[in-house]
């Protein structure tokens, strides 16, 4: 059944139309008793969607693909993926559908995507479903990332389906409605390359250029310019993750976007104590996707993208490889520059400070945090109070303040800008214990903790009375934290 979206927005099926070899038309499974759990009304307004309609029964059915908007062509997208280093040649949307694309009032194109909508031909034995908890986790963390100013897919809604999902126990099922500038991934290009059809690879690259990097079309070598743009976007993105202590947890090639948006909030978490080796994924036994490895793995994924694009770089293989390597080499420089600038901002350092002054300050303070097992977010937020003369909060976080005080004396002498620091060091992040508290309550039918947590993390830099527990570190008995992918 189709319906208008009761808004000024028209749905399209552009990906399904332009890249038919990578799109299998499919329908979402019918939910027996759909019930809206959370709707992102500000995002709906940005997209031109009528929030009142989306709350009505027909609107809720649209949000889970049981009422297909006019113009939409729901498809399961095909892509490849290196999963923890192992190649899965035919991965694809096993429990997801691209419902269609919409254009907002500013002319920007967005994917409307469903997660947990049922089995597809790519399901590989899975049930194609999702539980309430993991879908609400993605809603919380993706909206927090957006509020932090970090490029990300967005969450429009989570709808409970009324169907039970079997994991270790029976859990209530749900569908997430996700918004993205596209769902093109490194794995999309790996898939196209593996077909051996250079024409498909070229059309996919043209599609990516048109959607994300239109300036590349004017370059002397458009496909090389596309790759260089993706390298720059990912260098910037991963630096931003590192600066706020975000650990993605599953940086497979199917989870790296061409747009430079963070995608797939499965086994993800934010650092409590500063630990470069932190791993939060229950299945990452070797630490491949640990906090400190994220820049390395981003470069690894980009190498796989370069390999996929080689036929478009140059007809001569050796020349194509040289061009790819030259462009890929920019990643480390760009990441390092973004990281260094971000750390200088977190410390409130003046512009133009010599690197031989800034770098030792950064290295030493991170060493102090690691040795003292200090809370990452609390420490950097407390530094602005220190810069204003309230030295107690920062000192109290260090088990041995003497080394910190020697560092702080040198840092303070540079005149750090406390107000600027408060604009980049959040007071509120999705604290792991608070996320678990909200998800457990929501799974049991109580959405109040979810609402309170969302209120805090969607205004992360603005400290407000009554939200003290959302700025506090993890309780001492919280223990080692592990997250799961939800399948």
- Based on secondary structure, the structural category is alpha+beta
Number of helices: 19
Our Rg estimate from Cα atoms comes to: 23 Å
| Shape descriptor | globular
General description of the model:
With 487 residues, the protein is of the alpha+beta class. Among the domains are: 2-183, no CATH class; 187-340, no CATH class. 44% of the residues lie in helices and 14% in strands. The chain contains 19 helices and 14 strands. The protein has helices spanning 14-18, 41-47, 51-55, 57-63, 132-147, 186-194, 198-212, 222-244, 294-313, 317-328, 330-346, 355-372, 376-387, 392-397, 401-412, 418-422, 432-443, 448-457, 468-471, and strands spanning 2-3, 11-12, 23-25, 35-39, 68-69, 75-77, 81-83, 86-88, 96-103, 109-115, 154-166, 170-180, 246-247, 269-270. The strands form 5 sheets. Strands 2-9-10-12-11-4 form a 6-stranded antiparallel sheet, sandwiched between helices. The protein has a two-stranded parallel ribbon with strand order 1-5. Helix 5 runs parallel beside helix 18 (448-457) and helix 9 (294-313) runs antiparallel to helix 10 (317-328). The longest helix is centred in the middle third of the chain and has 23 residues, at 222-244. The two termini are 28 Å apart.
């Amino acid at each position: 059944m189709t319906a208008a979206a009761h808004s000024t927005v028209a749905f399209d099926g552009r990906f399904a139309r332009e890249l038919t070899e990578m799109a299998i038309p499919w329908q979402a499974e019918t939910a027996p008793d759909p019930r809206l759990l959370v709707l992102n009304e500000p995002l709906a307004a940005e997209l031109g969607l009528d929030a009142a309609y989306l709350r009505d029964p027909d609107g809720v059915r649209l949000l889970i693909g049981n009422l297909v908007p006019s113009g939409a062509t729901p498809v399961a997208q095909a892509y490849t993926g290196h999963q923890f280093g192992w190649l899965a040649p035919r991965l694809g949307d096993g429990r997801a559908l691209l419902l269609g694309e919409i254009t907002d009032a500013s002319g920007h194109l967005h994917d409307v995507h469903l997660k947990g909508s049922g089995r597809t031909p790519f399901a590989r034995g899975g049930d194609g479903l999702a539980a309430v908890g993991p879908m609400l986790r993605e809603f919380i963390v993706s909206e927090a990332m957006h509020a932090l100013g970090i490029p990300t897919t967005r969450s429009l809604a989570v709808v409970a389906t009324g169907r039970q999902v079997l994991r270790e126990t029976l859990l209530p099922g749900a569908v997430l409605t996700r918004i993205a500038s596209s769902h093109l991934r490194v794995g999309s290009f790996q898939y196209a390359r593996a077909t051996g059809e250079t024409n498909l690879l070229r059309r996919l690259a043209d599609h990516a250029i048109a959607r994300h990097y239109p300036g590349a079309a004017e370059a002397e070598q458009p496909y090389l310019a596309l790759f260089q743009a993706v390298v720059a976007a990912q260098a910037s993105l991963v630096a931003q993750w590192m600066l706020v202590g975000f650990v993605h947890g599953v940086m497979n090639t199917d989870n790296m976007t061409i747009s430079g948006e963070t995608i797939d909030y499965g086994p993800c978490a934010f650092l409590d104590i500063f630990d470069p080796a932190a791993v939060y994924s229950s299945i990452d036994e070797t630490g491949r996707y640990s906090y400190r490895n994220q820049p390395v793995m981003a470069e690894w994924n980009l190498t796989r993208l370069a390999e996929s694009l080689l036929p478009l770089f140059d007809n001569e293989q050796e020349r194509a490889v040289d061009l790819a390597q030259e462009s890929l080499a920019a990643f480390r420089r760009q990441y390092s520059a973004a990281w260094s600038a971000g750390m200088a901002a977190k410390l409130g350092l003046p512009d133009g400070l010599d690197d031989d002054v800034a770098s030792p300050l950064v290295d030493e303070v991170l060493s102090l945090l690691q040795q003292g097992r200090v809370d990452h977010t609390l420490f950097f937020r407390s530094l602005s109070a220190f810069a204003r003369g309230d030295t107690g909060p920062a000192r109290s976080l260090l088990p041995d303040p003497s080394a910190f005080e020697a560092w702080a004396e040198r840092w303070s002498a540079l005149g750090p800008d406390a107000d600027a620091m408060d604009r980049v060091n959040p007071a509120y992040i999705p604290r792991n214990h608070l996320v678990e508290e909200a998800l457990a309550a929501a799974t049991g039918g109580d959405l109040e903790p979810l609402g309170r947590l969302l209120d805090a993390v969607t205004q992360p830099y603005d400290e407000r009375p009554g939200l003290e527990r959302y700025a506090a570190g993890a309780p001492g008995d919280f223990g080692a934290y592990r997250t799961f992918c939800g399948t």
